[in-house]
Amino acid sequence: MIALLVLIVSLLPGCASLTESWKAPEVALIGLQPKELGLTRQVFIATLAVKNPNDRTLPIKAMTYRLALEGQEVAEGGGALERQIPAFGETTVDVEVIGSLLGLLQQLPALALQDRPLNWTIAGTATLAGGLITLPYRYSGQIDARTLMAGVRR
User: CA 18, CA 70: separation in Å to the nearest integer?
Assistant: First the structure.
């Protein structure tokens, strides 16, 4: 009887971890490189740092992204990601985003001339294993304009 009680008590923490709520990943913009620049379609590779703030592996199946520079949305994308980010770990991912022609035409010339860091915002969702849990995220920061725009001027 005591052995059964000890077994039940030892299993409780494991059950609790299954029901604990997940924290959304912390996402930061590291870079933006052109992949395809045309009149009707602009495709960029956004390099993102994705950090797991949870005390257990974060099993990301898919993510969506909306990227804004200086307060104006300039690109969006999403799709399968298939990443297992260890507890409190971080990984870098390259994801494809489709640019907004109007947003890019209005933004790029002015951004290329900036001598100050650019404000960025990235928002979207992370879908966890099985697709049953979707976590929204939204983060902002700054990136050096020359670093960000170096790939665009090539």
Answer: 40
CATH topology of domain 22-150: Immunoglobulin-like (2.60.40)
Cβ neighbours around 68 below 10 Å, total: 20
Which one is predicted more confidently, 148 or 47?
Answer: 47
Q: Which of 107, 95, 93 is nearest to 43 (CA)?
A: 95
150 with 108: CB under 8 angstroms?
A: no
Token couple for 78: 């999403």
| Residue 118 to residues 72, 113, 124, 126, 141, Cα–Cα distance (Å) | 12, 11, 20, 25, 8
Backbone angles phi, psi at 131, to 5 degrees: 75, 10
Give pTM, 2 decimals.
Answer: 0.77
* Domain residue extents for the chain: 22-150
Backbone angles phi, psi at 87, to 5 degrees: -50, 130
